[in-house]
Design brief:
- The complex is a heterotrimer.
- By secondary structure, chain A is mostly helical.
- Chain A is built from eleven helices and two strands.
- Chain A has a two-stranded antiparallel ribbon.
- The longest helix of chain A is centred in the first third of the chain and has 23 residues.
- In chain C, 35% of the residues lie in helices and 25% in strands.
- In chain C, the strands form two sheets. In chain C, strands 6-7-8-3-9-10 form a six-stranded mixed beta sheet, with helices on both faces. In chain C, strands 2-1-4-5 form a four-stranded antiparallel beta sheet, covered by helices on one side.
- The chains are: A mainly alpha, B mainly alpha, C alpha/beta.
- Chains B and C meet through α1, α8, α9, α10 and α11 of B and α2, α3, α4 and α5 of C.
Chain lengths: 274, 346, 252
């Protein structure tokens, strides 16, 4: 679920902006780190801290988008990949400088510790909370995109930027807004997931494969795709650990490989692959 | 013959006469040999990187196949050479050839499957491939040595006479020789009709298809050849360091060769040379004291290059050079051409 | 009869999801023809060309070059079989010079494209042949210019030069005069007139003056079907065609 929250932002940014932003993980990392700082230094309540962290990351991402990303929209995937890789390096270096190399986790807020009983099994409350939040975000996004006028504009621009501009949609602002939203989501994901996926300076690179897998399998430009993909990935990963523990990551890569070959567009693709 | 036609024939870009400055890399190697003998092992590593980057440039810079994870083939070559040596086959040159061959084969098979895709999918598949191989090597750690790497690689003397010494003398010369042959090959390839058609494919596949080029097949061949070269680079690395580990399949190496080409300039034969040397020297100087510092700066450099100098260092040099000399060597036209009724297409 | 037919289709049909763009087209191009394909926008003309070249796979029907069924043949093989086309929008190789564009085509025709090593001799040969072709289109003074430097009209000429470099027996031109000043478009069509008599030409064109002047035969495509075929006089006096073109009279 954590994967989902982080990745759906990526799916939308990649689908909408059509750029390969591998540095998305960096936004998640930033969110996580900021959350920790806000919690420990300023002793803000969890919810407030999380929201603030998301806002800060969103603001920063707008700056980055205007300054850097906007320049490579037309430049082709290779250059975009390079730009984002460069950003990852810079972000990781800064993270290491400020926070040090040791992994840190986000402390779970008191109200959410403990276990819940669901019939025969019991789950940590936090996990349930995460799943619930993930689903809630999914539903919220779905509603926004499918029902509101903003959502409609987004969908129009995803389908055809030139046409959207021709009918008067301000794509530049839209891009910035969506980018910010995607980054904010990433930050939230990074913060919330800080319990399961520890924050380290290597965060964006190490988990890059996972984010990309979710987005590739889920398809670009949709809200539902990454949801299903993240679910599948999570289930597949756990199943594998139980059934054939020696093969773990191998299975993931192999299925990614096979999947991409059979359905290069992903599960629910909205964007035309040119 | 009409002198203008002769001029055009002579001009055609891709005229492969050797230019004076092309001797520079070899001069640099000679200088290193004579004046900087303590740096020979390091220089040999740079040579390996140059070779790897050359192979990658063929695919990315010339054919326009944008893919990550060329390390898959590098690693296959590296482990082939390593495993051969560990299991009794110590002859270096044949080991190298075997490495290239196996990598080329893997490249061919992978290409058949992968090259049907494009864009993000292609990028991802390449990455998935190298990660897959890494995992495979890890799972069979009994054979491959896993994270610790393959130990006990002994390489027999080259031609039975030149034994690998501790100071890297023979290793260096061996590397230079291998690079020389590879460079000659790649250079000829790039100026050949095949190579020019690859450039055409990169620029506009539709156009090339319309003139009868079997685009998919050409890309596949280029891909396989490039994979073989990458395998030779990997094998060379194994042989001169007498060591190979999972890092050959790793993201750091994949990222490094990417940065090398970006810094040096893609699609320009010598981008690999310039980029590899710059990258490795910078890394040696900056990363030693503070790896965080290195990471930060290399990231910044990457961003700067993408935004301001997409052609890399060589691109910059070209731009500066064009300020000195006019770029268009236009054929001199003093009178309009005589209008003759000729049968076209004859 | 088949040896005087250069290009033929049988029941050629192409549908996308629910729309049928080309419908049961039985079309014949005689050897040596100078034939025009006209029709309102959206009639399916470019789709038909793409089906002929192999860029699109038909939903039904077949395509024949001479007496050879090429329906299963991929587009690059059809080029080898003698079919060449130009594009409605120039398909150029942005970084290369004019002569290189033509050279690449010549090299492919001569079979040099698969040569990986060596190339000096081949380079000379292809350059010379390419230069000749450029001369026939009065482009030779721009031979070594980067293609981006040329005016749109002259780029269009290069587009034609590339097709000619393939020495096709069947030449398909998709709106060769589109966006081209009259001097250059006349150059293109005069060149077509001078082609050997065994070369068959089919061109899509909207400019009725050019069609009337250079076409010996006209096929009218409407809504994916060949409505009528005939000489320019037949077509001009056909009331049905006049109705279709009532709104397209800008060329008179």
């Amino acid at each position: 679920m954590v994967l989902y929250v982080i990745s759906v932002g990526l799916s939308i940014t990649m689908g909408l902006l059509g750029i390969a932003n591998l540095a998305h993980g960096a936004f998640a990392m930033a969110g996580g780190y900021l959350l920790i700082t806000l919690l420990s230094r300023l002793s803000l309540p969890f919810g407030v801290a999380l929201a603030s962290a998301a806002l800060i990351v969103a603001a920063a991402s707008i700056v980055l988008e205007r300054l850097l990303y906007a320049r490579v929209y037309k430049a082709g995937e290779f250059d975009q990949v390079l730009l984002s890789v460069g950003l990852i390096f810079v972000a990781s270096a800064i993270a290491q400088y400020v926070y040090g190399p040791i992994p840190v986790t986000v402390p779970v807020p008191k109200q959410l510790t403990g276990q819940i009983d669901f019939g025969p099994r019991s789950f940590p409350v936090y996990r349930v909370f995460l799943i619930g939040t993930g689903v809630a975000i999914f539903v919220a996004l779905l509603l926004v995109i499918e029902r509101t006028s903003v959502g409609m504009r987004i969908r129009a621009t995803v389908d055809n930027r030139a046409m959207a501009e021709a009918v008067g949609i301000n794509t530049k602002t839209l891009f910035s807004v969506v980018f910010a939203a995607g980054s904010a989501l990433a930050a939230v994901g990074g913060g919330l997931g800080g319990d399961m996926i520890a924050l380290t300076p290597g965060y964006p690179l190490e988990n890059l494969a996972y984010f990309l897998i979710v987005v590739s399998i889920g398809g670009l430009g949709t809200v539902g795709g990454p949801f299903v993909a993240a679910l599948l990935l999570g289930i597949g990963d756990s199943a594998c650990k139980i059934v054939a523990p020696q093969f773990g990551a191998f299975f993931i890569y192999l299925s990614l490989f096979g999947f991409l070959l059979l359905r290069p567009g992903g599960l629910m693709n909205r964007v035309q692959e040119q | 013959m009409d002198s203008r036609k002769a001029q055009a024939a002579a001009f055609t870009v891709g005229s492969d006469s050797f230019k004076a400055w092309e001797v520079l890399p070899w001069v640099a190697f000679a200088v290193t040999w004579f004046l900087l003998p303590t740096y020979l092992p390091f220089a040999a590593q740079i040579i390996v990187m140059i070779l790897f980057a050359l192979s990658y440039d063929l695919v990315v810079g010339y054919a326009g196949i944008v893919i990550l994870g060329h390390t898959a083939f590098y690693g296959v070559g590296a482990y082939t050479a390593g495993l051969l040596a560990v299991n009794g086959w110590h002859e270096p040159i044949s080991g190298l050839v075997a490495g290239g061959f196996s990598a080329g084969l893997v490249g061919f098979v992978a290409g058949v499957v992968i090259l049907r895709t494009r864009g993000l999918t292609l990028l991802m598949l390449g990455l998935a491939l190298t990660l897959l191989f890494g995992e495979l090597a890890n799972r069979f750690a009994g054979i491959t040595g896993g994270h610790d790497g393959l130990q006990g690689i002994e390489i027999a003397p080259i031609f039975g006479r030149f034994e690998f010494d501790m100071f890297g003398h023979v290793a260096f010369l061996y590397s230079v020789a291998v690079l020389f042959l590879a460079w000659l090959f790649v250079r000829t390839l790039v100026y050949s009709p095949f190579g020019r058609s690859l450039v055409g494919i990169r620029l506009n596949e539709v156009r090339m298809q319309a003139i009868g080029v079997p685009v998919r097949t050409r890309k596949l061949i280029a891909f396989a050849v490039s994979a073989a070269l990458a395998g030779i680079a990997g094998g060379l690395s194994t042989q001169i360091t007498q060591f190979v580990s999972l890092s050959v399949f790793g993201l750091e190496m994949a990222g490094a060769v990417l940065i090398v080409l970006v810094m040096g300039g893609r699609g320009r034969l010598y981008g690999a040379f310039v980029g590899a040397a710059t990258y490795m020297i910078l890394q040696d100087v900056l990363a030693k004291d503070d790896p965080v510092f290195w990471l930060f700066w290399i990231g910044l450099i990457l961003i700067a290059v993408v935004l301001f100098a997409p052609g890399g260092l060589l691109g910059l040099i070209e731009r500066i050079a064009s300020l000195w000399r006019p770029t268009s060597k236009m054929v001199d036209v003093r009178r309009p051409a005589k209008i003759e009724y000729k049968k076209a297409g004859q | 009869m088949t040896d005087s037919i250069a290009l033929r289709t049988r029941e050629l049909t192409k549908s996308f999801s629910s729309t049928t763009v080309v419908s049961n087209v039985d079309f014949e191009l005689k050897v040596g023809a100078r034939q025009a394909l006209i029709g309102p926008n959206g009639a399916g003309k470019t789709t038909l060309i793409n089906l002929l070249t192999g860029n699109l796979v038909p939903t039904k029907g077949s395509v024949w070059i001479s007496d050879r069924d090429v329906t299963q043949l991929p587009s690059h093989r059809r080029v080898k079989a003698g079919l060449a086309r130009t594009f409605q929008i120039n398909q150029l190789l942005r970084e290369l010079s004019v002569i290189e564009h033509v050279q690449l085509a010549v090299a492919e025709r001569l079979g040099f494209g698969s040569i990986m090593l060596g190339g000096r001799r081949t380079r000379r040969e292809t350059a010379e042949q390419a230069y000749d072709i450029l001369e026939s289109l009065k482009l030779e003074d721009a031979a070594v210019s980067p293609i981006a430097r040329l005016s749109y009209g002259r780029q269009r000429l290069v587009e034609v030069a590339i097709a000619l470099a393939l020495q096709p027996t069947v030449l398909l031109l998709d709106e060769p005069a589109a966006g081209v000043p009259p001097a250059d478009s006349h150059a293109i069509f005069e060149l077509i007139e001078r082609l050997p008599s065994n070369v068959s030409v089919l061109f899509i064109e909207h400019d009725m003056k050019l069609v009337a002047r250079f076409a010996q035969r006209i096929s009218v495509l409407v809504a994916g079907q060949i409505m009528v075929e005939g000489t320019p006089q037949d077509i001009a006096s056909n009331s049905f065609v006049r109705d279709i073109y009532l709104g397209h009279r800008h060329h008179g």
